[in-house]
Amino acid sequence: MKIRKAISNDEAGIAQVHVDSWISTYSGIIPTEYLDKLTYENRQKLWEKNILELDVFVAENNEGRIIGFSTGRTERTGRHKGFDGELSSIYLLKEYQGKGIGKRLLNSVVNTLRSKGINSMLVLVLEDNPSRYFYEAMGAQILDKIELEIGGKKLNEIVYGWDGISKLA
To answer: In 23-169, at which residue ranges do the beta strands (DSSP E only) sit?
Structure first.
């Protein structure tokens, strides 16, 4: 298992994990019609841009296949004072969950944020996403709840925060 910074050739692998993870994680939470419209091609275009603009890390299995990714950035909304960094995404194929890979992907973002002088971070997670308990196990505190709409369905997103990320790394 290897965690590394993403490069421009990684878009297709990241896109596949992104789509497959959304389908396995959000089935029954997000409307099926919305999930059915997700394509590798559209997500690959998104990741061509994201790799240039965000701190993106990938997890590779022993065969060199991308099986997960995480992204970080400075916090983009300014709504939660005192939280300067953001874990914008972390996704892992279902068969690789529960093996410590998510923690390693999280730590990659934490270490990068810390290298930029950022010592606090938040992450937004759908309330019905069972993976949200990962963040609680990692010491995140609930800061807020936000309503949003995906595919015509109103959902709640929980805002978790760490006011000191140095203890995570």
So the answer is: 55-60, 66-74, 85-92, 121-126, 141-150, 153-162
